[in-house]
Amino acid sequence: IRTQQDVRWIPMEAWDACDEAFEEAELEGLACFAGLDMSSTRDISAFVAVFRKDGKVYVVPRFWVPKDNAIKRERSDKIPYLTWANQGLIKMAAGNVIDYDVVRADINEFGKRFNIKEIGIDRWNTAQLTTQLAGDGFEVVPFGQGFASMSAPSKELERLIIEGGLRHGGHPVLRSMASVIAVKLDEVENIKPSKKSSTERIDGVVALIMAIGRMIVSPEEQASVYETRGVLVV
């Protein structure tokens, strides 16, 4: 029986086939669900929103990284943080820790452009930010990181990738994370995201999974499933 194995997960040829470009402005005003993975104050933090439009799931990510740590990581891990920052793909904050106030402000700006229904957030080390975002008017939902919470949305993400139902626009930061993410399997083949090395960054894909997790349990999504697939009678 396979259990607790780390298995490379996303077939990159299928991921790259979902890279059709789009403008974020096309999604303004549409409902979306988001995931927020703050991971560690010294590493990348990721906010990823998903939108359902024309039968596809569109992905809009935001990333933050502390500048001091990014410079060190670029040298040690060969990850082009500075290039990404110069291209506007990742926000680099001064110092060696993530400024949660910057993340909060950016999410509020995002919320002015897009209709954020819910934000799924990792419970770990985010109590204050959760309270602040809730105070800003967002529906913030704690999202567990174990098999029970992560398996269904992880499998839905996998299905969307394989069937070509995802549109991520080829975002280089998200692609780098998709290329290294692994999954753990339990004894009944539930899955959850994992990384094979402590230097690998997978935060964006974890946030994407949380966003999908909130989307697939939403009343709107459930109604859509019944309309398109009908009611399953056993």
UniProtKB/TrEMBL annotation:
Terminase large subunit-like endonuclease domain residues are: 3-216
Task: Extract the Pfam families matched here.
Answer: TerL_nuclease
Any GO molecular function: endonuclease activity
- What is the name of this protein? Terminase large subunit-like endonuclease domain-containing protein
